[in-house]
């Protein structure tokens, strides 16, 4: 059963909160002693099937417009001005245009009937969608839906973009290195080598380094070795084992995986994992960074690079989902978030914009707290959530995309702002949002029967309340109050479309869950999050290839093989490779059968000692002369 709610205008006040006073049964019929019954509003249409009289139809359509209709001139046909142009018109011109737009909306108010699943309600003589647009950005004049209702495709923004990859690829390796190009790899190599030196220096100053420490065997890495490291990490997502050292098991049994040890030694893998770095610690100036920027400083270059590459290499289709994702992190972390309906429950939250059909990650933003310095309290779309949505959609304006969001993001003011920028939006809605009419906000579950629909429109924004097992509210910019009947259930069309298009982010997470690169435990949160981003980039590469003959698992195995082939690195040999890390070591034994070591004269105190600096290749006392010498030089 479909009904309408006729609502008053909302110009900025928030929806009033519900009080605890006992409810009174609404009187749906006008009082007989009311001197002007036509000016009294009914919450919903009467349940009576009696045909409406012509006077009742005229009264319902012209309610609240008596004064404006008296001032209109007959015989003058006003042309509706486009929405964005009206925003910058003078008040007098805008008022005239608004009257002409409102006059176009007069239609017969008969209630629409639910249609079958495969049928589409007919709409003879549709109303122009442009005429339904408001003249004031945040003045919502809620009213009944006009009948016959406008077809959704007539109100929807035209989609003017060819979706898919912007560059064609033939092999998985080509799609992957288009994202992880040589520029970003050289940056990671440079920062990793710098951090390895800083780590060794810190350990020396703290006295935690020893002759057998793994850092003493460090030598600078390069791009080829880093690609090999990435390939090993990706292979760990395909071959699942519970402990890291089990991948280097070369024993002659069923648990052996000898391929890992042929590509890189276990000690070298440990060293690269410990020294992997993306931003120089010395460049972190807290005075120049906001609090959220300081929290993400370690991983910021990777986030910026991937956001740029993801958006450059792919053009989104019309339906786009905006939702949050969660990377599990059980340790203490200031930016940790708790989302009970996610698989990870607690961890690092990201707001993501994904294509609904494929799950392609087009842009994301890591939550590290909100920067409130740029917010304006008097602007309804300058809040934290609307500002986040507009940042994620930057660059997609006026292309006709439809943004599917849940009730955490949706609001009437944001829907109108998106419509102005050339988007459509739809999704669930919290009825306590600003500008939601109080008649809908006050409706409870007991006020409706199962399958009943209530709703109203402001011209470009529609709100629909549907009673299923619970009360569900939807907001849309083009669906109106159309409904379909599937079996014994009557559903609004916006609910069916929402179920089809909202799962873009969840579809991405489901595909990544099969190859858990970030499953390995880490003591450093941004390194685990980096593996999550690496995993997402592989999925995007798979979508970029756009080859239906490749299965996801087959694509990953081919990519790993291509990386090993294209970036074959020689096995590291600590005896022949000179190290650049200043660390103490001991000379080798003079005779294997004896404990005497080679001794040389210290460059500082001239004593004969058996310790030396591996980088300087000079003998020096570890505890008395090592630090003064390196401080002076």
UniProtKB/TrEMBL annotation:
Domain PiggyBac transposable element-derived protein: 172-542
Biased composition (Acidic residues): 65-75
Domain of life where this protein originates: Eukaryota
Listed Low complexity bias regions: 8-19
InterPro entries: PGBD
Region annotation (Disordered) ranges: 1-75, 94-133
Pfam families, sorted: DDE_Tnp_1_7 (PF13843)
Listed PANTHER family: PIGGYBAC TRANSPOSABLE ELEMENT-DERIVED PROTEIN 4 (PTHR46599)
Protein name (Swiss-Prot/TrEMBL): PiggyBac transposable element-derived protein domain-containing protein
Natural source organism: Bombyx mori
């Amino acid at each position: 059963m479909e009904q309408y709610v006729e609502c008053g205008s909302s110009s900025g006040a928030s929806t009033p909160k519900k009080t605890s006073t006992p409810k009174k049964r609404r009187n749906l019929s006008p009082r007989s002693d009311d001197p002007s019954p036509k000016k009294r509003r009914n919450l919903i249409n009467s349940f009576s099937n009696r045909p409406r009289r012509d006077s009742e139809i005229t009264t319902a359509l012209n309610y609240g417009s008596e004064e404006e209709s008296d001032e209109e001139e007959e015989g003058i046909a006003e042309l509706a001005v486009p929405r964005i142009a009206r925003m910058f018109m003078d008040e007098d011109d805008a008022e005239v245009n608004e009257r002409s737009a409102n006059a176009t909306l007069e239609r017969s108010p008969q209630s629409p009937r639910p249609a079958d699943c495969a049928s589409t309600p007919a709409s003879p003589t549709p109303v122009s969608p442009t005429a339904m647009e408001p003249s004031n950005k945040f003045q919502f004049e809620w009213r009944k839906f006009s009948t016959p209702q406008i077809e959704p495709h007539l109100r929807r923004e035209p989609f003017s973009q060819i979706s898919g990859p912007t560059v064609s690829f033939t092999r998985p390796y080509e799609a992957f290195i288009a994202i992880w190009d040589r520029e970003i790899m050289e940056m990671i190599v440079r920062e990793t080598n710098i951090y390895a030196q800083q780590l060794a220096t810190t350990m020396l100053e703290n006295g935690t380094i020893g002759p057998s420490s793994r850092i003493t065997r460090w030598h600078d890495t390069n791009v080829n070795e880093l690609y090999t490291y990435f390939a090993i990490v990706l292979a760990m997502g395909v071959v699942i084992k519970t402990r890291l050292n089990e991948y280097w098991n070369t024993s002659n049994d069923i648990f052996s995986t000898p391929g890992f040890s042929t590509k890189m030694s276990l000690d070298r893998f440990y060293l690269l994992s410990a020294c992997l770095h993306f931003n120089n610690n010395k460049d972190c100036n807290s005075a120049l960074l906001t609090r959220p920027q300081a929290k993400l400083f370690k991983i910021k270059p990777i986030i910026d690079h991937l956001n740029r590459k993801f958006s450059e290499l792919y053009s989104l289709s019309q339906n786009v989902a905006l939702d949050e994702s969660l990377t599990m992190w059980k340790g203490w972390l200031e930016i940790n978030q708790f989302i009970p309906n996610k698989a990870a429950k607690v961890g690092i939250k990201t707001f993501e914009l994904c294509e609904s059909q494929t799950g392609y990650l087009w842009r994301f933003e890591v939550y590290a707290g909100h920067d409130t310095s740029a917010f304006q309290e008097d602007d309804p779309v300058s809040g934290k959530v609307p500002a986040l949505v507009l940042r994620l959609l930057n660059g997609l304006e006026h292309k006709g995309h439809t943004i599917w969001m849940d009730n955490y993001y949706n609001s009437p003011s944001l829907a109108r702002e998106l419509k102005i920028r050339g988007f459509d939006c739809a999704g669930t809605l919290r009825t306590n949002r600003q500008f939601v009419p109080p008649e809908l906000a006050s409706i409870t579950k007991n006020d409706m029967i199962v399958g009943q629909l209530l709703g109203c429109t402001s011209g470009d924004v529609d709100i629909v309340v549907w009673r299923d097992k619970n009360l569900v509210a939807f907001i849309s910019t083009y669906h109106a109050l159309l409904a379909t009947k599937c079996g014994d259930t009557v559903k609004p069309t916006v609910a069916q479309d929402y179920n089809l298009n909202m799962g873009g982010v969840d579809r991405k997470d489901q595909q990544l869950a099969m190859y858990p690169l970030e499953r390995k435990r880490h003591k450093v949160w941004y390194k685990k999050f980096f593996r999550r981003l690496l995993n997402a980039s592989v999925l995007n590469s798979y979508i970029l290839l756009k080859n239906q003959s490749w299965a996801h698992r087959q694509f990953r195995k081919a990519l790993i093989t291509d990386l090993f082939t294209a970036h074959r690195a020689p096995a590291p040999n600590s005896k022949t490779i000179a190290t650049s890390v200043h660390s103490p070591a001991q000379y080798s034994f003079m005779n294997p059968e004896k404990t005497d070591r080679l001794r040389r004269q210290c460059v500082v105190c001239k004593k004969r000692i058996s310790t030396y600096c591996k980088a300087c290749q000079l003998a020096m006392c570890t505890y008395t002369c090592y630090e003064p010498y390196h401080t002076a030089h």
